[in-house]
Amino acid sequence: MIAPDLTLPPCDFTVFGGTGDLALRKLLPGLYEQERRGQLPAGTRIIGVSRSPLDDARYRDLVSQALFDHVAEDHLEAGALHRLMTRVHHLTLDAGSAEGWDALHGLLKRDGEEVVRVYYLAVASDLFGPICDRLDDLGLVTPQCRVVLEKPIGSDLASSRRVNDAVGHVFEERQVFRIDHYLGKESVQNLLVTRFANVFLEPIWNSRWVDHVQITVSETVGVGGRGEYYDKAGALRDMVQNHLLQLLCLVAMEPPTHVGGAVGTAEDAVRDEKLKVLRALVPLTGPDVDRATVRGQYSSYGEELGHPSTTETFVALRAEVQNWRWAGVPFYLRTGKRLGRKESTIDVAFKEPPHAMFPDSEGVSTPNRLTIRMQPDEGMQLHLTAKHPGPGGIRLHPASLGLTYADTFDERSPEPYERLLMDVMRGIPTLFMRRDEVEAAWGWIEPVLERWQDTAVEPVRYHPGTAGPAAADRLLAREGRAWHGSER
């Protein structure tokens, strides 16, 4: 067991949407793992707020079942379960109503005791402002408070600004934690270490040596129970505007003055560099959108919804970062549902050697490539060309140097929410998006959305279980390239 962080005061962790899928599938299991590791300070309480008519006992039963469903069996410990349940409470409250808030005030008010209050808003973004206003009216907002905002934060730049303005009217920017769980993945954070703690990559991490970059986040599942939300959002808003652009930023950013860590020093250094990348993206407007983007929809999507729809479930696009390091290097992004396999990868493809040293050899020399795998099997591979063993000349053969975290390290990699929730409690914002980041991402995405709406071109259909629409292959083929690892 890891010793508790004794520098942390007690925390009241309040989840609005406490009976929702996110709370039961990710947040409560994440808090349980921290309880199991002994990292929740004494006196910490977990308060689920929802419209469900549940008392503490019935809510604890619901949470217990969620833990049995979503926590690995070998991590379920009777002592940790008991300790967590003593912290768990429920308050029945309609966040959109003016009634019932006094009960929350009575539950959270601790006179004379230093407490960190975390308000996790796992609800629709149109409730963010009203909830913050109610908390302010009740005197429940102090300098020690933090508010966590789940995506989507608005549906376009204007609505995002309205949401951020409403939250910012109550909370200072340093208190606002806009969460993107991809930034909590071990492999994503290891990307920063790989880049900035190893000197051999830096000289070749630029347009002179990098041919292109591919970022893929593919899912085998459909929209499931998220159909109502997803049909209003689509893949561009749901995945590209946040997850994929954040990954692009981590690949392309300049070395920050300090990445941060447990001490949380210079936490804005990373976010400053990510913002520079977003502002350096070449705008996609008008006919450029037609040439550089692909919209797809899996063929059974309308049947799952129960009505026809033109919402995209697949996006592929070509982006460029117009700065000294990356000018001329294409970044290819793609994401989709009901594809052939579930994977999240970043591929940095290097250029061909400047001179063919083995023109008469057998086999094929392939360009070097660095693959960072976020799922499945977190790790990375460096793809090289090697000599096949044996006499009688040189036979070239592709080979890989691999690092798989599960094989290399004895420790279990924490789930993203485990790390991010503790960062919120500690007040470390490095892995969370700042307002100017969110708005810069919307500013780049919005012309694409507008072009799609103006041209009214329906998404290209693709069969479930495939690599997506063939148009996505043509997007790269026009420049003599192909997607890695997605053979049809």
CATH architecture of the largest domain: 2-Layer Sandwich
- The gyration radius over C-alpha positions equals 24 Å
Q: Helix tally?
A: 15
Total discrete domains? 2
Biggest β-sheet, characterized? 10 strands, mixed
Outline the structure in words:
With 488 residues, the protein is an alpha/beta fold. The chain has a ten-stranded mixed sheet, with helices on both faces. The protein contains 15 helices and 16 strands. It has two domains: 168 residues, Rossmann fold (3-Layer(aba) Sandwich), CATH 3.40.50; 295 residues, Dihydrodipicolinate Reductase, domain 2, CATH 3.30.360.10. The protein is 36% helix and 20% strand.
Brief digest:
The protein has 488 residues and is of the alpha/beta class. The protein contains 15 helices and 16 strands.
Using brief descriptors, characterize the structure shown.
disordered N terminus, 488 residues, 16 strands, single chain, 2 domains, Dihydrodipicolinate Reductase, domain 2, ten-stranded mixed β-sheet, NADP binding, alpha/beta, globular, Rossmann fold
